[in-house]
Amino acid sequence: MIAAAAPIRAKRVLPGFTLSLGTTLLYLVLIVLIPIAALVLKGAEIGPAAFWAIVSSDRAVAAFRITLTAGAIATAFNAAYGLLMAWVLVRYDFPAKRLLDALMDIPFALPTAVAGLSLTALFSANGWFGSVLDAAGLQVVYTIWGIALAMAFTSIPFVVRTVQPVLEDLDSSLEQAAETLGARPWQIFSRVVFPAILPAWLAGCTTAFARSLGEFGAIVFIAGNLPFETEIAALLAYIRLEEYDYNGAAAIALVLLAFALVLLVVSNILQSWAARHREATR
Amino acid sequence: MSITISGMTKRFDRTEVLRGIDLDVADGELMALLGPSGSGKTTLLKIIAGLEWPDAGQLQVAGQDWLQLAARDRRIGFVFQHYALFPHMSVRDNIAFGLDVQPRGQRPSRAQIAAKVDELMAFLQIDQLADRYPAQLSGGQRQRVALGRALAIQPRVLLLDEPFGALDAAIRRDLRRWLRGVHEATGSTTIFVTHDQEEAFELADRVVVMGQGQIEQIGHADEIHDHPASPFVARFMGATVELPVTLLAGRASGPGLDLTALPRRALPDGPAHILARPADIRAVPDAGGCWTVGSLGSTGAELHLTASRPDGTEVEVQMPRRGAPALTRGATVTLGVEAAAVFPYSRRDHAAHVLPLRKEIAR
User: Does the domain at residues B3-226 carry the CATH identifier 3.40.50.300?
Assistant: First the structure.
């Protein structure tokens, strides 16, 4: 006999599912969605013509250009170095490995202003690195290189921490299979290992780039903040706010927001493209 | 290619995985390494492949010292237990991989590679899968692709690690026959690892039984079945009934046991024990017998029963129901053993002890 009266209810893992979902949604709305909506509304108030005038002003365009260029430099550096770092942390055993692994999180944990201050001290003309580089005719502080340096410092964990777990989970028999088929070490890496970590690596690089575009605290100390030279977009928005030019600040912030959203979408598209054949590999 | 392994040992930390392996594999032979998990069979296979390295010993293939060669230079075909297909490559690209990665000078042209891959796919009956990705294939199909990938480089030796381990019983049987056909068509020396006796005996020319890092016996199915070289092999082959007996002039005897069916053995007088399969034991009603029937059950074709002696020994018996005497619970019986392996009693036997190895028998 089958009891037909009581409807069968799916068992839920978490008790109080409705409550927990409600709480998280409320939080998301209050902390994330409402501020973003406010920003968009504020930008919409300005009107298209005025908005365009603000974001296409020479100073704003220069700030965007500097931010994007420095971000690209920092991301290119992190893409290479972060991949190497993840590789070293996963594939090699050495005495201070755990320590190095832990150090990788410092950029996350450290207040960005502290990072900016210490980088400035190191790279200024009389700092440890700066004095050497100065002698070689290379100035880092108060140039775009300083900005890129600060961005690279704060965003490196994004690449390392996304690639690392994927590399750890990689089935070692794939590499062994490639080896038995006659592949040289470089071929194993480029044809077997790299395609497997590509989605994670791309995702890490994109988030690192997005983080670089939004970096503020570490950069303002080292950049010198000269308009048209070393003034980043986030700082310009801040300056506009200081000047009670709310529209100017909102317009610039909106452009940064748009960049971030585009990057997120790109990151997701790249990942799903790269992961199109990856399910149930065993 | 003939393979000669001698004095091979290997340990992982404290565990000895191989303790002195001597093995000859003839050119074109299909050989099975059979043993329970932890017997070292996979390690031995990986050493032949160059994916593991022994601590001591020799590995000669067609007279060449393979311990001097990296895996990629050995030209072996290795089929992994879980196939290890490259997930981001189509079936065609997977099979072509070994040819694609050859150095420029040796590499066949694109057209030659494509032709070779097509030929292989047709041979393995997977041509309709050419553009699929591994995630879209069933287990049996993956197995075929993995074998195709290994065969593409025309391997000198083909090695398979538990080739059917992850497949359904029905597919297993099909693939077994199919692999035998592939072996006969390619003629390459093939070694495969398995823990399934049926698989080993049905497929291989010769079977190597391994236990705890040593070779226990090498031989054909009948030989290993009828004359296990050690208690280990006997137990592994299903002889779960162990009974102490006394040997006198080559004849074994024991209380309540009818052992007249066993042939004479050239073994010293004294205590010994026999290992028998439950299906080789018959219970015969005997008012004076010292075994008492305990549980009694039937599968229709077979009668399953347990018999015990006052000293606590309990024996499992499986006999055909047709023609079986009428038995009831509590009846006293004598046990007739129709076939069993006899080994002199040895204290060390229950540790890792093994009798002197039976020398290999030429094919």
Answer: yes
